[in-house]
C-alpha cells in the first residue's frame, strides 16, 4: 500500500493513505543499512501488519522531488513565509534571509503578513510595495477575523506547503485555523520582548480543512536569526531578482552594486525603481559575507533603513 509520512516520532512513522486512514509504522532495518532515513513528506510503500490496529512497516521510499535540511522534510511544493505586520514589527533583514534560504532550495514563495486587523494602511502599503516589486506574491491576512484566508486556501490547494517565519507572528494559530484538529499549542506573545515562545516541537504535515486530500501544510520551528550558508558576495545579487533588469546598465561586469561608480542598480534605487529597504539589507548581507561574520540579534524595525 502507498501513503505519505505525515509525522515521525521516536522511530514510529505515521502514514496517511488515499483512503484517509492513518497507519502507525516502523521502518525496515534495510534503511539503516543503506543509511537512509524516512522523512516527513516521503511517499512510501508499506506492508500492513494489522488493519484493526492500523499498523505496518515501511518497505520502500519512493523517489524524492526535493529535500530540505531545516526542517528535515521532503517533497515540498512551496514555502509560505509568515510575518506579522505589527506586534512584532517585521524584520526586513530576517525576511530577506528567509527568501534567500528558500531560493537556495528552489522553492516558490508566498509572503504572508498576519495581523491585518490591528495594522494601519500605511504599514501594509510599505510591505506590499517593498516585496511585490521583486516579484513575490504578497498576501495580507488576519487569523483573528479571517480576512484573506479564502485566498490563502486557494494558493495552498493541491500542494504541500512548508510554513516558515519567526516566533510570535501567528504561525501555529494559522495552522489551527486551517486544520482545527491540529490543536497546536500557540503560546502567549511576550509583552516584554515582543517575541513568541517557539511552540513547534516536531515536523508534521496537516490537511487543510475543506480542501483536497493532497493539500498539506507543515509548521516549522521559529527563527530569530539566520546565517547565510553557501552564498558568496558574487552570488548574492542573484538572490535579489529585482536587480537583474538594471545590471546591464552597470559600467563594470560583475558589479557588486556597493562601491562601483556608474551602477545601474544604485541608480534604480535612487529613482525608487528598487526598494531602498531591500537594497540596504543587501548591503548588510554583502558586508556580512565579505567579512565572513554572521550578524545576529539586531532587530530591524520599519524605520531603521
Describe the structure.
The strands form three sheets. The chain has a six-stranded mixed sheet, with helices on both faces. The relative contact order is 0.13. The chain starts with a strand and ends in a 14-residue tail after the last helix. It has seven helices and 13 strands. β9, α3 and β10 form a beta-alpha-beta unit. With 305 residues, the protein is α/β, with parallel strands linked by helices.
For this entry, give a set of tags:
305 residues; six-stranded mixed beta sheet; single chain; 22% strand
Chart the SSEs and their pairings.
Layout: E1 2-9, E2 12-16, E3 22-27, H1 30-33, E4 43-50, E5 55-61, E6 67-68, E7 73-74, E8 78-84, H2 92-104, E9 109-114, H3 121-132, E10 137-140, H4 149-156, E11 160-164, H5 171-178, E12 205-207, E13 216-218, H6 264-270, H7 276-291
Parallel strand pairs: 3-5, 8-9, 8-11, 9-10, 11-13
Antiparallel strand pairs: 1-2, 1-4, 2-3, 4-5, 6-7, 12-13
Amino acid at each position: 500500500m502507498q501513503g505519505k509520512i505525515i509525522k515521525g516520532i521516536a522511530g514510529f512513522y505515521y502514514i496517511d493513505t488515499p483512503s484517509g486512514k492513518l497507519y502507525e509504522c516502523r521502518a525496515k532495518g534495510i534503511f539503516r543499512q543503506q543509511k537512509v532515513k524516512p522523512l516527513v513528506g516521503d511517499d512510501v510503500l508499506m506492508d500492513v501488519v494489522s488493519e484493526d490496529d492500523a499498523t505496518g512497516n515501511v518497505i520502500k521510499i519512493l523517489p524524492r522531488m526535493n529535500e530540505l535540511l531545516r526542517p528535515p522534510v521532503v517533497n515540498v511544493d512551496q514555502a509560505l513565509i509568515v510575518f506579522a505586520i505589527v506586534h512584532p514589527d517585521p524584520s526586513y533583514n530576517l525576511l530577506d534571509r528567509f527568501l534567500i534560504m528558500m531560493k537556495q532550495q528552489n522553492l516558490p514563495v508566498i509572503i504572508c503578513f498576519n495581523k491585518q486587523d490591528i495594522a494601519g494602511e500605511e504599514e501594509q502599503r510599505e510591505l506590499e510595495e517593498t516585496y511585490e516589486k521583486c516579484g513575490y506574491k504578497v498576501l495580507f491576512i488576519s487569523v483573528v477575523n479571517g480576512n484573506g484566508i479564502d485566498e490563502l486556501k486557494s494558493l495552498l490547494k493541491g500542494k504541500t506547503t512548508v510554513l516558515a517565519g519567526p516566533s510570535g507572528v501567528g504561525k501555529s494559530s494559522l495552522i489551527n485555523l486551517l486544520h482545527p484538529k491540529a490543536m497546536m499549542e500557540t503560546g502567549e506573545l511576550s509583552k516584554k520582548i515582543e517575541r513568541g515562545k517557539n511552540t513547534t516541537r516536531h515536523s508534521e504535515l496537516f490537511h487543510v480543512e475543506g480542501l483536497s486530500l493532497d493539500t498539506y501544510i507543515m509548521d516549522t520551528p521559529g527563527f530569530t536569526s539566520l546565517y547565510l550558508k553557501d552564498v558568496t558576495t558574487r552570488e548574492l545579487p542573484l538572490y535579489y531578482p529585482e536587480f537583474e533588469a538594471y545590471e546591464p546598465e552597470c559600467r563594470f561586469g560583475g558589479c557588486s552594486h556597493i562601491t562601483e561608480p556608474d551602477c545601474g542598480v544604485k541608480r534604480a534605487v535612487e529613482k525608487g525603481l528598487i526598494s531602498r529597504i531591500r537594497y540596504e539589507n543587501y548591503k548588510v548581507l554583502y558586508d556580512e559575507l565579505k567579512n565572513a561574520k554572521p550578524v545576529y540579534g539586531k532587530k530591524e524595525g520599519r524605520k531603521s533603513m
